[in-house]
Each structure stands twice: as C-alpha cells, then as structure tokens.
Amino acid sequence: MTTALYLEHYLDSLEHLPIELQRNFTLMRDLDARAQGLMKDIDKLADDYLKNLKKESPEKKKEQLTHIQNLFNKAKEYGDDKVQLAIQTYELVDKHIRRLDSDLARFEAEIQDKALNSSRAQEESNASKKGRKKLKEKEKRKKGAAGTTSEDESKTARKKQKKAGAVGSGAQVESTALGHPADVLDMPVDPNEPTYCLCHQVSYGEMIGCDNPDCPIEWFHFACVGLTTKPKGKWYCPKCTQDRKKK
User: Fold this and answer.
1) Domain 177-246 has CATH 2.40.30.10
2) 214: exposed, middle or buried (Cβ count in 10 Å: 0-12, 13-18, 19+)
3) What is the per-residue pLDDT for 153?
4) How many Cα atoms sit within 13 Å of 47 on the Cβ side?
5) pTM
C-alpha cells in the first residue's frame, strides 16, 4: 500500500471524529453544569436546615434531609455520567492513535521490504553485469589467442616462403652466375611485395638468412653483404655481428 492510500484511509476514519468529540465535550459541560447547580441547591438547603434545626419538627427535619440526600445522589449520577463520558472520549481518541501506530508500523515494514528487494535486485544486476563482463573478457582473450596463433602461423608461412624463394633464386644464380642486381634495383617495386636486406628491396638472386632469431631483417642478398658462396656454419648479418661484439 502506498503512502497516499495509508493517508487517505486514515483521514477517512477521522472524518467523524471531530463531531463525536464535540458532542461528548458538550454533554460533559452540560452534566457538569447540572451537577454544579445541584450542589448550589444543596448548599442552600443545608444552610436553611441548620438555621431552622431547633424550630422544625422531627418529621420536617427528616423530610429536608431526605431531599438533600436525593439531590446528592442526583449530583453523583451526573458526576458518574461525566466520568463515563470522559472515558469513552479517551478510548475513542486512543483507538485512532493505535490505528495510526499500526499503519505506521506496516508502512515502515513495507518500506524496508521494498528497500531490501531493491538492494537484492541491484546486487543481482551487478552480478549479472560482472558475469557478462567476464564472459566478454574471456571471449576477447580467446580471440586474442586465436589471432596470435594465426599471426604466428602467418609469420612461419612467410618465413618458409622466403626460404623457398631464396632457394629458387639461388638455383637461378648458380646457372647464370650472380645476375645483374643493378638491373633489379632499377625495376619498380610492387608495394604489396615484401622487402629484405640492407637495400630494402624485394627478393632476387641468391639470398642468405641471418642465424640470429631476433634479427629485424632476416634475409640478405649475397651481393649486398659481400658473399659469392654460402659460408659454412652459422652466419650473422653485419648489424647482428656488430651487436654481438658489443656484448
């Protein structure tokens, strides 16, 4: 139940309360006025009785005392009615106070339940977001690993292709001597063709690979590194040889 409904229902229950309270207070004032009037009459009769105590006959005295006693009894009835009416008025107001306390307790319980449910929903939403984030990160890692593997495979394939090209070029050089590298350098370079060596040209003639696995160039033309035949053992390019000497 919303706050507006609680307030509306409570105000509906209070609709007749002012009228009932006004009626009870009016009756209590009336009873009090009657009791006060009787007490004045009793005081006057008591004074007359005391003044004429020696003059009146016993029957007259008894009659006056009985009348005074009846007036006292009537005043007591008015007082009892007034007290009873005051108790009813108190209980009437107390009933509405108890209802207000009950509605407030229920309203606070509902607010706490809503806050708890909202907190749980927020936690579930955060957990779901974290789960989706972890899943995305896992997928990214898988894609990254797959891309790295593919890149490594591509590098291996290119290296094999280079070696095959170098072997083929070597066979050609053996049958036609060294060829004419100057003629090759004058030829236009295809932008999609990979370049090698210190001259940054495409593969041609016989080539040799540097035995340093971290060599940035890898393959070199025989003529560019001053070779006419393939040397025995491991061979390092001029740059890698200089770096090894520094170490």
Assistant:
1) no
2) exposed
3) 52
4) 5
5) 0.42
Residue of 188, 213, 216 lying closest to 202 (CA atoms): 188
Question: How many C-beta atoms surround the C-beta of residue 223 within 10 A?
Answer: 20
- The per-residue pLDDT for 142 is 62
Q: How far apart are CA 87 and CA 223, in angstroms?
A: 123
The pLDDT, as a whole number, for residue 188 is 59
Nearest to residue 36, comparing CAs of 82, 5, 104?
Answer: 82
Instruction: Please check whether residue 208 is in contact with residue 166, taking contact to mean a CB–CB distance below 8 angstroms.
Output: yes
Cα distance between residue 220 and residue 106, in whole Å = 88
Mean pLDDT of each 10-residue bin along the chain, 247 residues long: 70 84 93 93 91 84 91 93 93 87 82 86 79 72 54 52 43 37 54 84 89 91 91 91 85
197 marked as binding residue: yes
Residues linked to residue 247 through DSSP beta bridges, in sequence order: none
Is 199 marked within a binding site? yes
Q: Tokens standing for 33?
A: 């006025």
Contact 179, 205 (CB under 8 A): yes
How far is Cα 37 from Cα 56, in angstroms, rounded to an integer? 26
Q: Which of 244, 169, 174, 247 is nearest to 210 (CA)?
A: 244
Residue 189: predicted pLDDT: 56
224 is in an annotated binding site: yes
Nearest to 205 by CA among 160, 163, 166, 238: 166
Do the Cβ atoms of 104 and 10 come closer than 8 Å? no
Which residue has 């927020």 as its token pair? 122
Domain ranges within the chain, ordered by starting residue: 3-134, 177-246
For residue 67, what are its two tokens? 């009348």
237 is in an annotated binding site: yes
